Amino acid sequence: MDLRPLLTESDTKILFVIADGLGGIDSEGRGTELEAARTPNLDRLASQGATGLTYPVAPGITPGSGPGHLALFGYDPVEHDIGRGVLTALGIDFDLKPGDVAARGNFCTVNDDGEVTDRRAGRIDSQESTRLVKMLRDIRLDDVEIYVEPVKEHRFLLVLRSKKEAISAALDDTDPHRTAVAPRQPHAREEKSQETARAVSEFLAQAQEILAKEEPANMVLLRGFAQLPQLASLQERYGLNGCALAGYPMYRGIARLLGMKVEDCGPDLDSEIEALRAVWSDHNFLFLHFKDTDSRGEDGDFDGKVAAIEELDRVIPRMMELEPDVVVVTGDHSTPSAMASHSWHPVPVLIRAKTCRVDGVNVFGETACAGGGLGHLRAKHLMTLALAHAGRLRKFGA
After folding, report:
1. Could you give the maximum distance between any two Cα atoms of the chain, in Å?
2. Which pLDDT does position 165 carry in this prediction?
3. pLDDT, position 87
4. Domains (range + CATH), the chain
5. Nearest in space to 85 (alpha carbons), one of 72, 94, 74
6. What share of the chain is helix, strand, coil (3-state, %, to 5)?
7. According to the model, what pLDDT value does residue 138 have?
8. Could you read off the pLDDT of 105-122 as tens digits, one per residue?
9. Is 267 a residue whose pLDDT tops 80?
10. Which of 3, 1, 22 is closest to 350 using CA atoms?
């Protein structure tokens, strides 16, 4: 639905707090990670507002972080299928050109049989990743310029720029998304991407040779091949002057793609809160991203994810001191530590505003939220609800 005819001016402020991979499952008889965590501040917010569960894409569909975040900002992730490569490029301020093909890369570990044993090479640190990126910059391809840039930890960016005719990003991932199998060969999904597949294949062959003696990062995986799209900004779509507080490049890239200001902040929550306070008066929509919940879930670390949730709970009072008119707390998807991966399970959400119909839920957790007043809804509707509670939507129809 086009909301622009309904938008109305207001001096209210909306705060989205996104704990990446927040949702979980009960696999140990302790409840989910969120239910096992001690979260008095999140519980208080839940008791003051309305709760429910969201589907980032649709029931049964496991989302990536890109689609999950686009949905939270009110963009249908099926209609706007944006590859991780573009979001990564924008997140590190790479000057991506129309027609460039961008991919997110992981340094990984393969064994003597060529099978992936660790998709993240032990999460090598950023300094080591930068050293390896410099080695990959020696790769040369016919008719295609390549750019390799460090991102964070084991992640890097690959950009292909044709010297001749346009190339296509319609390629499948070379990342198999599991271990004990070999990396996939680049597969073109259409005739126009055959040239891209050949270039990527040659890049991988040279990368394998360059990294052969490295330990643990002796190979690379690529995913999220994409080209720069055109999207209406938050300002154009919702009349919002947005600002993002995020340490990880991909989430900064999503924010830039949607026209938000991306504020410099440190890697931890305390730094993000200080940055949030500094920019609070300049924006009416603020997005704070917390990554550790997802990282610990992907590591299969139940207790680590519990600790991360408790760390987020600790800083909630400092956010509330700013007196946001509408607060939304949720995740972009579920990452149960029992599965050590993203999953299709719906994500708990709370909305706190003076106009909320308080639903009687006093605990912020999956089981409690399943009975909340928001019900089970697609995540793309959260933005509409936030705008309504902020007094930014007029009546529809006569």
Report:
1. 71
2. 81
3. 85
4. 4-81+232-389 (3.40.720.10), 88-226 (no CATH)
5. 94
6. 35, 20, 45
7. 96
8. 999 999 999 999 999 999
9. no
10. 22
